[in-house]
Structure formats: structure tokens, C-alpha cells
Specification:
Elements: H1 2-16, H2 71-77, H3 83-99, H4 101-106, H5 108-115, H6 124-141, H7 148-162, H8 167-183, H9 186-190, H10 192-204, H11 213-235, H12 238-242, H13 244-253, H14 264-292, H15 297-319, H16 333-336, H17 339-349, H18 363-383, H19 391-406, H20 413-422, H21 426-430, H22 437-449, H23 456-469, H24 483-503, H25 508-524, H26 530-541, H27 543-546, H28 565-576, H29 583-593, H30 600-615, H31 621-634, H32 650-667, H33 670-686, H34 688-693, H35 696-709, H36 718-737, H37 745-768, H38 772-786, H39 790-808, H40 811-819, H41 821-836, H42 845-863
Length: 872
């Protein structure tokens, strides 16, 4: 107790004692406070905003995007360290170009120099945005310009990206390259060796099989596109000359680039190195498909691109030539397509045929496998002559081809495409001796009969038929001496008219292909051969194509009249090669001539072909005459436009009339033809049904035919002249009854010319037969007195007076009127008698006035001097 109290007292004394320096204890890690005498250097200020004061910030007159950024600012942002800023900059550039396209055309080289740096961008989205910018905006806008310098700016960066350490960046580089060759195909031909080497390195990389299938598909599709360009350049060496200027321009930027022609051996070597990698990668892909028991679209398209690339590469190596400038002979083929390469294809690829799944696949997957098998079969058929395939493989191939041809489910797209792919090989297969030949012939014939789908399939069948029937330089024409082959060939010929009627105007391209084949058949076959006899019999099968012949005033038109003129021309030319044209075909053809929409050139062509056929003895003269008269008498002339679809065809009929007259004038002796034709023509002219139903054009055309064959004095028989004298008054009254009484001067001149056209054949008849005009005038007088109605009588009188006044204006025909003065007086007397019976006929005042005017006009012709012959 004493000690504790003593301690407390000592502590109290210490607390009451003063402290000179207070000791502050600091904790470790805490910041020391500033000293009390420290000076505060912090400066506080407020911003002063003065709008429109900075001259540097003004962008008036500059093209900006929706965020107000110029092209220079956006291009600078494409190099920003932040990927989002780079993406936004590319979107802003796209927006700027869409709103201000002139910016792209003015600064395209500077733009390309800046944007090409993003091809190797680390960010996947940035690369994708750049790709879409090139595809949708930049390349389409620069397509019409010289793209050589632009492509040269890009290719160095594309090649650099193809060797990048990141494999996904390499695949993106191939995507950019594929875009470039889509817009500028010559790029591949200039860089073929380097590009093929890049593809070979990529295919050899094991990372490719584990990569994104969309990117793998793009790489393989771009390779296929390149090889197609290589193949196209091989087929058409002239394309190198067409692109010579562009290539020289590209060389000015890259002078060390090897040209395709100089690097042919290098390209061949690269292809030989590429093929094993393609085959190996295909096997790896197929193994994955078999293990998964499914074939998705990406895998299918990748495998299809590989097989098609192998096919093109093999064909190129076999051809051995890349351009016409290369002096590579056929004997060098084996050097390019050597033994080890053949063994590799046979052992590693063809041994997989036919591809099949290890498990159960869907119908769509099975269809895709069938498509792949078709391409493998194509590869085999292309190289069959260069390898020695085992018999088992050949049996598999032939059996597969037969099964594809017999597939009738055309709703499956793969089935149709498979047939189209294999049909070009059928002629070559059938020209070989094989146990499958009979089955293949029958399968092809059955498939041709069932051919209905689309445009490409029938055209492919027609090309195969052409090659197997008609001889040609590159054709594998089948031996027609073989009865089995001949029977099939004839069955193919009989299918042509059916296909023509079936497709018709619905598929003009197919109809044109059929007609071209028919024309070549007619040109190449002999009339007495089996093909010639079958060609002649096809005219009866073509009746449905041309249309049924007129029956009771109705004509059923076939597809012929609605086809394009080029098809109509081909169809007409086919008729020339028939050894004889029978009457049913001519009737059907005459019905086609009545179609209003037929071009004038086609109508004239029909007449010319029939005329040429008559010259070589392929049509009877009476059939030709009957056809010509039928066409002229039944043609429906439309002098005015009645609707948008029905147009006037008076001019067309005038051309047709001239063509028929010229044709009949060349047929033989005119007098003989006139004796044959006059009775038929006059019968049609005086037929009551024709007089009522046809127009003046048909009647005028028939009379023009008579006049064209007649001579002076007339060779027409007394019976024909007598019957014509009863027809002509009605014809003339009809003609002059429709002349308008008033109108402007130009329209009256046109009417006067038209009237003279219809009157000309009558005047020729009057001039060649002296008595005909007298008889016609007497018939006109009888026609006036025979009418009961006052209005009809007035119209007839006015028409007769107009007729006489018109021919009186021509000095040449005044002499005829002078010789018929007594008949004209008879007509005048009849008009006078009609006037006196006005009360009987209950004439109106207007009718009386018209009759009086006509009487005075005709009386003036009789009393004035113009009827007299003027003194010499």
C-alpha cells in the first residue's frame, strides 16, 4: 500500500510539471502531415468559354461524319492504342464515305496507305470491320478506276499477314486476299507463285484442322477461286493480251514481280507441291466427319472446295500449257503429271470412293455425300486416260454414274447438279467398250425422257446428245452402224420436238438450244439415211410447236409465235432441210403468219425459206400457191392501234404482199402460174363470206397478186374477167365510201395516197382489158338502181363520182374515161332518175342535196374539156 501511494504521487508531480517539447508518436506507414509554416501552392481557376473564338476548331467547308470528325482525324484514330477507338474510327470512315463519296475518290491512295496497316490488327473485330469497309464501300467505288496501284499498296501487307505468328491472323489475310481477287482477278496471275506457296504452308500447318471452320472455308474457297482463274487463263490465252496494259502499270510499282508466262514452270511445281497437302487435309476432314456421323454445311463446303481444287489442279497439270505464248508441247504432260503424283491420287483419294458414313446420317447429309462422290468421279473421269485404275474402281464409277442418271427425285437439288456435272462425260464413256455400256445407254435415254427440271439440266442433256449424234472435231460421235446405238439415237431425236413444245416460251434458252440442235441435224444428215428419214418425220411432231391449223375461223397458236425472234428464225431455217414439206405443216405455218405479234422480218423469212425450198424441189407448186393465197386472204389487218398490246400492222401486210408477189413471180412461167392461181383467187374475191368479213387490204393484196402475174393485154380468162366485173363495183364503192370529207391538208394527202394504193390494181386491170371499165360502169349504174334505201343510194352515188373524179385527174387514164363516155352518161342518167324518185324513196333534204351535188359534179366531167384528149 505504501509503495503504490508513493508511485501515484510521483506521477502526479510529473503531470503538473511543464513540458518543453511535446513528443508525437508516428505510426509506421502513415503519411507525415505538412509543416505548419508550409506555403500552399495550389491554384484554383474557372474556365472561360468563348464560342466561335478558336480559328483552329472551325470546320466549315470540310466533309465530316455524323460525329463531326474529318477524314484526317479519323485516319489518325485508326492507329489509336485502344481497339474500341480504332473500330469507331473505321465506322466513322464508312459513314463519311457514304455521305461524301468524293472524299474517297480524291484521297484513295492516302486512305489505302493508312488502312492497310489494320490488316494485321491484333483485334479480331477491327479486322472484320475493315474487311466490310473494303467490301461494301472502297472496292466497289474504285472498281471503275485503275486498281493496279491500289492493289500494289495492299499486297505487301497481305503477304506479311499470311506469315504472321498468330494463325488466326494468317487466315484473315487469306480472307482479304480473296476479296481482292474478287474485284481484281489479275492479282493472282501476277503473284501466282508466292500465293500458291502461302496456301501450301497453311494447308501443311496442323493448326488448320483445329481452327474456326468459317475461316477454313474462306481459305479453301479463295484457293478454288485462284485455281479457277488459272484454268480460265489456260483456256483463253487472249485474256493475257486484254490485260496487258493493266499488268504493265502494276509492274511499274513492283518491277521485280515475275509474270505468269515467265513463271509457268514455277507455278507447275507449286501445284505439284500443293496437291499432296490438299489430299491429306481432305482425308483429315473426312475422318472428322465420319467420327461425328454428320456433315454440316461448313465441313461440306470445305471438302467440296478441296475436291474441286484438286480437279482443276490435275486438269491444269495434264494440259501442260498456261498461255498461248508458251511453247509447251503435249509430250510434256507426263513431266507435270508424273508417276508419283498419279499413284498418290489413286492411292490416297480415289481409294476413298465412294464416300460413306460410319453411322446413320440425315437425308441432307447423304445428299451432300453424293455431291462429293460426284466430284471424285469427275476427277477420275478426267485422269482416267493417264492412270491405270483397278477394275473394281471402274465398276464402282460406272455403277455410280448409272444410279445418278436414274435418280428421278429432281426436287433434290443435289440430284440435278450431280447429273449436270456427269453428263459431259457420258459421250466419252459410251464411246469406250465396257460391260456397263448397255446399262449406261438405257439410263441416259430414260433420264433424257424424264428431263424437266430448270434450264441447266435440259441444256446439259442437249449438249451430250449433240456430241453423240453429230460428228465434230472434238466430239466422241457414236457409231450409228450399231443397231443398239442407232435405236437410242433415234429415240433422242424424237424427244426434241416434245422438249420444244414442253419448254416453249417458258424457257427460251432451252428452246433455242433445241432448235440449234435440230438445225445442225438438218444440215449434217443425208436425206436417204436413217437420220434423214427421222428428221423428215419430225415435221408431224412439230405441228404442236407451230400450232394447229385454222379450223372454223379459229387458230390455236403454239409456242412458236411467242418465242424471241432468234428462236423463230432458227425454227424457220430448220424447215428448209426437210426433204418435203407436207400440207399439214404448211397449214400450221399459215396459221402462225396470222399472229399479229409476229415481226415483219419473220414473216418475210417464212416466204423466203418456202421459196428456196421450192427451188430445190422440197415443196409442191400447188402447195406453195395455196399457202401464199391463204396467208394473204386470212391475215387480219389492223389499220389503227386498238390497245397497248395490239398495234397496227398495215405496213407489215404491205411488206408481206410484196414478198408473196415476188415469190410467185419467181416460181415459174408467169402465164402458167396465172392459169393455176386465177380461178382460186377470183373464187375467194367473190365469196360472200370474204366480202363481208375481210378488209380492203386482203382484197387489194389478192388483186395485186393477179396483176403481178398478168401481162398486157390481159391473160385472164373470160370467165375470170366476167366474175371480176361483178366484184369490182362493190370493191370500189366500199373503197370510196370510207374517204373522209374534211380534215387538215396533211391528213387528206395521206388519205389520197392510201386510196391510190388500193386503186392501183383496179387501174392495171382496166388498162389491160379495154372492155372491163365499161362493164364495171354498167354494173355501177345497176347498183344505184337496185338499192331501195335513199341513204344507201346517196352513199353509192357519192363513191362512184369520187372514183371517176380521181382517175380523171391522171392524164394517163383520161383516155379510158373518154372511151367509156356512153357508160358514164348511163350512170348520170341513173342518178337523174334517182333524183326524180325522191318522194317515192322518202328522201331527206340533205340526201336530195347530196345527190344534186354528185349529179352536177359528174355532169361537169362529161361537159368540160378534161374528158377530151388534149391536143399535142
Amino acid at each position: 500500500m505504501v509503495n503504490s501511494k508513493a508511485q501515484s504521487k510521483k506521477q502526479q508531480k510529473k503531470q503538473n510539471r511543464g513540458v518543453d517539447f511535446k513528443k508525437i508518436r508516428r505510426k509506421v506507414g502513415k503519411k507525415l502531415p505538412p509543416p505548419k509554416n508550409a506555403t500552399n501552392t495550389e491554384i484554383k481557376s474557372k474556365a472561360i468559354i468563348l464560342p466561335e473564338q478558336s480559328v483552329a476548331a472551325t470546320k466549315d467547308g470540310l466533309a465530316v461524319n455524323k460525329k463531326g470528325l474529318t477524314l484526317k482525324e479519323l485516319l489518325q484514330q485508326t492507329s489509336h492504342h485502344n481497339p474500341k477507338v480504332r473500330r469507331d474510327a473505321l465506322h466513322g470512315i464508312r459513314d463519311l464515305f457514304l455521305n461524301h463519296p468524293e472524299e474517297l475518290s480524291l484521297h484513295k491512295y492516302a486512305i489505302m496507305e493508312k488502312l492497310r496497316e489494320r490488316i494485321s490488327d491484333d483485334d479480331t473485330v477491327v479486322r472484320e470491320v475493315l474487311y466490310r469497309l473494303f467490301k461494301s464501300v472502297i472496292f466497289p467505288a474504285c472498281k471503275e478506276d485503275n486498281q493496279g496501284p491500289l492493289v500494289s499498296l495492299l499486297m505487301a501487307y497481305v503477304f506479311n499477314a499470311m506469315t504472321h505468328l498468330r494463325f488466326d491472323l494468317r487466315l484473315t489475310a487469306f480472307k482479304f486476299f480473296d476479296l481482292i481477287i474478287q474485284f481484281y482477278p489479275a492479282t493472282f496471275l501476277l503473284h501466282a507463285e508466292q500465293i500458291l506457296q502461302r496456301y501450301e504452308d497453311t494447308l501443311h500447318n496442323k493448326l488448320l484442322i483445329t481452327s474456326d471452320w468459317g475461316s477454313v472455308k474462306t481459305v479453301l474457297a479463295s484457293l478454288l477461286r485462284c485455281l479457277e482463274l488459272l484454268s480460265a487463263n489456260d483456256r483463253d490465252g487472249a485474256s493475257s493480251d486484254n490485260n496487258a496494259d493493266e499488268r504493265r502499270l502494276l509492274h511499274s510499282f513492283e518491277p521485280d514481280l515475275p509474270t505468269l508466262s515467265s513463271g509457268h514452270s514455277l507455278v507447275t511445281a507449286k501445284l505439284k507441291g500443293l496437291l499432296p497437302n490438299l489430299i491429306c487435309f481432305f482425308k483429315d476432314l473426312f475422318s472428322l466427319v465420319q467420327s461425328a456421323a454428320s456433315l454440316d454445311m461448313n465441313s461440306f463446303e470445305s471438302m467440296l472446295s478441296i475436291l474441286q481444287s484438286i480437279d482443276i489442279a490435275v486438269r491444269f497439270l495434264i494440259s501442260g500449257s498456261l498461255s498461248r505464248n508458251q511453247n509447251v508441247q503435249k509430250s510434256s504432260h507426263d513431266v507435270a503429271f508424273d508417276g508419283p503424283l498419279k499413284a498418290l491420287i489413286l492411292r490416297e483419294l480415289l481409294s476413298l470412293f465412294p464416300l460413306h458414313s460410319m453411322g446413320t446420317m440425315s437425308g441432307k447429309d447423304e445428299e451432300r455425300l453424293c455431291t462429293l462422290n460426284v466430284v471424285i468421279a469427275e476427277i477420275y473421269l478426267n485422269i482416267r486416260e493417264w492412270i491405270r485404275p483397278p477394275a473394281s474402281l471402274e465398276e464402282e464409277i460406272f455403277g455410280f454414274v448409272v444410279r445418278v442418271l436414274l435418280e428421278k427425285n429432281l426436287e433434290r437439288r443435289g440430284s440435278t447438279e450431280a447429273k449436270i456435272s456427269l453428263l459431259p462425260f457420258i459421250p466419252r464413256l459410251l464411246s469406250m467398250t465396257s460391260s456397263w455400256r448397255t446399262d449406261l445407254l438405257q439410263a441416259f435415254s430414260d433420264a433424257f425422257k424424264d428431263c424437266k427440271g430448270g434450264n441447266a439440266l435440259p441444256i446439259a442433256f442437249l449438249a451430250a446428245v449433240d456430241e453423240m449424234i453429230l460428228p465434230g472435231q472434238n466430239h466422241a460421235c457414236l457409231d450409228s452402224c450399231d443397231p443398239e446405238v442407232l435405236n437410242h439415237q433415234i429415240s433422242w431425236m424424237r424427244e426434241l420436238p416434245r422438249l420444244l413444245s414442253l419448254q416453249g416460251e417458258k424457257n427460251p434458252s432451252i428452246s433455242e438450244a433445241v432448235l440449234r440442235l435440230l438445225l445442225r441435224l438438218g444440215q449434217c444428215t443425208c436425206s436417204n439415211s436413217s437420220f434423214g428419214l427421222e428428221y423428215d418425220n419430225m415435221q408431224y411432231l412439230l405441228l404442236e410447236f407451230f400450232g394447229s391449223c385454222p379450223d372454223k375461223g379459229r387458230t390455236t397458236y403454239g409456242p412458236f409465235v411467242k418465242l424471241p425472234p432468234v428462236c423463230q428464225e432458227l425454227a424457220i431455217c430448220c424447215l428448209y432441210y426437210l426433204s418435203h414439206l407436207d400440207l399439214p405443216l404448211l397449214k400450221s405455218l399459215s396459221g402462225c403468219c396470222q399472229w399479229n405479234g409476229l415481226e415483219p422480218t419473220i414473216l418475210i423469212r417464212i416466204i423466203d425459206v418456202l421459196d428456196s425450198s421450192y427451188v430445190v424441189g422440197r415443196i409442191r407448186v400447188d402447195d406453195l400457191i395455196s399457202f401464199s393465197i391463204t396467208v394473204l386472204s386470212c391475215y387480219k389487218v389492223l389499220p389503227v392501234k386498238t390497245s397497248e398490246s395490239i398495234k397496227p400492222n398495215h405496213g407489215t401486210f404491205m411488206q408481206l404482199t410484196r414478198a408473196v408477189c415476188s415469190c410467185l413471180s419467181r416460181v415459174g412461167d408467169r402465164q402458167t402460174i396465172l392459169q393455176i392461181i386465177q380461178e382460186m383467187t377470183v373464187d375467194i374475191l367473190i365469196s360472200p363470206s370474204l366480202v363481208v368479213s375481210t378488209t380492203l387490204d386482203n382484197k387489194c393484196a389478192l388483186m395485186r397478186v393477179l396483176v403481178a402475174l398478168d401481162s398486157k393485154p390481159t391473160s385472164l380468162s373470160e370467165n375470170s374477167l366476167s366474175r371480176l366485173s361483178s366484184f369490182l363495183p362493190h370493191y370500189l364503192v366500199h373503197l370510196f365510201s370510207h374517204i373522209p370529207r374534211d380534215g387538215n391538208e396533211a391528213s387528206l394527202v395521206d388519205v389520197n395516197n392510201a386510196v391510190r394504193y388500193y386503186l392501183t390494181p383496179c387501174l392495171f386491170l382496166f388498162e389491160r382489158c379495154d372492155r372491163l371499165l365499161n362493164v364495171v360502169l354498167d354494173e355501177m349504174a345497176s347498183l344505184i338502181s337496185s338499192k331501195n334505201g335513199a341513204s344507201d343510194c346517196s352513199n353509192i352515188v357519192r363513191a362512184i363520182v369520187s372514183f371517176l373524179s380521181l382517175i380523171n385527174e391522171d392524164m394517163k387514164y383520161r383516155e379510158m374515161l373518154r372511151q367509156s363516155k356512153s357508160e358514164i352518161k348511163h350512170v348520170l342518167q341513173t342518178i337523174y332518175s334517182l333524183q326524180n324518185s325522191g318522194e317515192e324513196l322518202k328522201m331527206t333534204l340533205q340526201t336530195r342535196h347530196e345527190l344534186q351535188s354528185s349529179y352536177l359534179q359528174l355532169n361537169k366531167l362529161l361537159t368540160d374539156s378534161p374528158l377530151e384528149v388534149p391536143p399535142k
